[in-house]
Each structure stands twice: as structure tokens, then as C-alpha cells.
């Protein structure tokens, strides 16, 4: 069954949590950061591990990350963020339940009552979500919980660096499309989605504390601890792990390898949990013979 997916939705799928809604500090000399440098033919390709929702006081970035951004001729994100409005409209279309079906008719009564009560605690409007699929309801609930704790998609690494890259006149791009991310979320069976909503409700009080823990590990580049968190999150959800992490990493790998042959430096910004662990991009790139060093 799908478990624990939405608890990391804001981490593994960048701006989608923000689309449902409309402090890092400077690392010390003894700390690593969640930034890795790949030595290319004539350039450097930097992998910056992102957290997709952060509080406003999480800025500025650690110095090595800021330098990598400043030196990059091109900044590539998980997805091209230039059309979040269009992606938001597509998400609403894909999230809509068939005509005549609502959450109140689809969910077991006990589960629906819990969902309505949880939404009320974070100022959500149950009526506006009656016509959406359980995966969207789960993501919205988790996003509202994080927002209530002070986390904002607009302060996440992706959206902030996207805006700064556009303002600086840097070339931008994406490793996949926002439409593809929506397709992944919409690909789970209805029974899996219902179980997902149940697990989200069971673990809702852990959403903000766990993201806080992750943010602290991110501050000092504790890759091994982040990898353990990733494995723990998906230990009971091999299908979700395959779809959300492994398959996406494999699809991105050749694109990142090709960047090592460019003339100018490139900064690649992806969710930090895509970089760490045995199935992460760092180990995959190393296995392909590339020199990848944590900064």
C-alpha cells in the first residue's frame, strides 16, 4: 500500500504543493553543504539539493551554494517553472473526480469525517475539495499543515532560485515537465489513493517536525542521515519509491551527464532526497566514472 508519500510530497515534487494553494544560514567551515560538484570536460556541474518548502528566515543560502549559482551560466531545475499557472490548471483537471462522485461518497464515512476535521484545524475549506481525488486532497492537507507551521513553497529553493535566475538573465530549463509530475501523482489506483489519505491523516502531526529535522540535516550537508530518512519514508512503499525516486533519477541521469560536456558551468537544482542514498544521483554519476565531490 502507499504509505508516507505526501509527508514528502513537498520534498520530492517541487512546486506542486504550492500549486494546490496558490533558517538555512551559512554553513560553518567544518560543515559540508548539500551541494556536489561534478568535474566536467571544460566546466563544472553542480548538484544543489533543494528543499521545496522553507520558512522565510531560511535565507540566504550557504556560501558554496550561492557561489555555484553566481558562476552558473545555466540553471536547470526538476521541471521548467515558467508556466506554473498552466500546470496548476492541468493539476485541477487531473485531480477532478468523475461527475457524480465526491469524497463524501467515495471515502468511508469515518475517514471523511477525519479529513473534514483536519482541514478545519488548518483553515481549509472541505466544500471546495469535495470534488477532488484523494491524492490531491492528501497533498492539499499536508501543504496546509506545513503552511500553518511557517513553511512556504514561495520560499523553497526552487522557486526562489528560479526567480533569481530569471532576474539575472541566466538560461533556465527543466529535467522533466510539471505535467509529468502530475501524471505520476495521478497514476496511483483509487484504493491506493484512499490509503494514502488515511496515512496522511494518521501522520499529519509529524509533517512539520519531520521537515524541520530534514531542514536541519540539510543545513550541514548530512547526506548519510538524509539517505536514512529517505529509506525510512518509503520502506513500506516500494511502488511509490520506484515511481517518485528511482525512475525519475534514471530519466535525469543522461541529461546531467551531457551537461559535463558543455562550455559553461551548470547548476542543477533537485530535491535533496534525489541526490542521496544508493539509488541517488550522486552514486549513479560516480558509478558512471564521474568525479563527484560534496562541497
Rg value: 19 Å
Task: Categorize the overall geometry.
Answer: elongated
Q: How much β-strand is present in the residues? A: 5-15%
The residue ranges in which pLDDT falls below 50 over 5 or more consecutive positions are 1-30
Number of strands: 6
The portion of residues assigned to helices is 40-55%
3D architecture notes:
- Mean pLDDT is 88; it is low at 1-30.
- This protein has 14 helices and six strands.
- The protein has one domain.
- 50% of the residues lie in helices and 11% in strands.
- Helix 7 (134-148) runs parallel beside helix 10.
- Strands 4-3-5-2-1-6 form a six-stranded mixed sheet, with helices on both faces.
- The longest helix has 22 residues, at 238-259.
- By secondary structure, the protein is α/β, with parallel strands linked by helices.
- It has helices at residues 9-12, 16-21, 63-71, 84-95, 103-106, 109-121, 134-148, 157-167, 178-185, 190-202, 207-219, 223-233, 238-259, 281-287; strands at residues 35-39, 44-50, 74-79, 171-176, 266-271, 292-294.
